[in-house]
Amino acid sequence: MTEFIVAVPSQLVGLGMETLINQEPKFSVVATVNNQQQLRDAIARAPFATVILGSQLCSDGTIEVWRRIQRRYPDVHMLLWAARFQDVLDFQCNLERVEGYLLASAQKEEFLNACHMLSKGRMYVAASVAEYLAKNPARQRQGELLAKLSKREIQVAQMIAQGRRSTAIGQLLNISSKTVNTFRYRIFDKLGISGDVELTHLALQMKLVDLDDEVAVQDDDEASEGGVRR
Predict the structure, then answer these.
(1) What is the mean pLDDT of residues 24-47?
(2) Which of 49, 62, 85, 221 has the smallest C-beta neighbourhood within 10 Å, fewest atoms?
(3) What are the start-end ranges of the E strands in 94-174?
(4) Which residues contact 123 (CB under 8 A, 6 or more apart)?
(5) What is the model's pLDDT at position 138?
(6) Domains identified in the chain, total number
């Protein structure tokens, strides 16, 4: 019997997934949750389950929440239920392991196919996701860029490029604003850039963030927050 945990923000969507999965032989939904604490509790009870994880379950903190869960429960698997292509890129860039990628626009047959593939220990990438990644013109340059940065540095770079303040980034990642700025200048050094505006332009070119996500970038003076300077 393959156990599933459905973890999506919408209770209605979650119940629909639960119904579909439970209709399949040898499949069982052990929990349907819609917040971080419920997810943690469900995985503690079923540490070998496959989690269908909504990319926006914990808003901007979903990746970090999953990173911690994955570290504590290495046998749990995850099928990403992505609200948009950008979420696929974010998870791919920031996590070492994702077993499956599926867009929230997927049809019933594709959803069940993904569940069956993961139940057999195989990876699943939706055709639309694979096509998007293959056609992404910035893919090669993105790979070169990402090779220079650690997973944490990529995560910080994305948040800086979205215009987030050091204190906000620190709260999301559970680190101090001083540590955020240490990451900031380490990123600048590795990429050969000198400020947040330049980093934002580079992140947009590399498709690390969407234009829709772009907000006003703070002055570089803010980067000295926490007492860390170049």
Answers:
(1) 96
(2) 221
(3) 100-103, 124-125
(4) 99, 100, 117
(5) 56
(6) 2
Residue 28's H or E segment, with its range, is strand 27-33
Range of 146's domain? 140-224
Same domain, 157 and 213: yes
206 or 194, higher pLDDT: 194
Adjacency order of strands within the sheet including 124-125: 27-33, 2-7, 50-54, 77-82, 100-103, 124-125
Residue 126 CA to residue 55 CA, distance in Å, equals 15
pLDDT at 171 over 50: yes
- According to DSSP, the β-strands at 77-82 and 50-54 are parallel
Tokens 């040898």 belong to 26
229 falls within a domain: no
| pLDDT tier at 146, thresholds 50, 70, 90 | confident
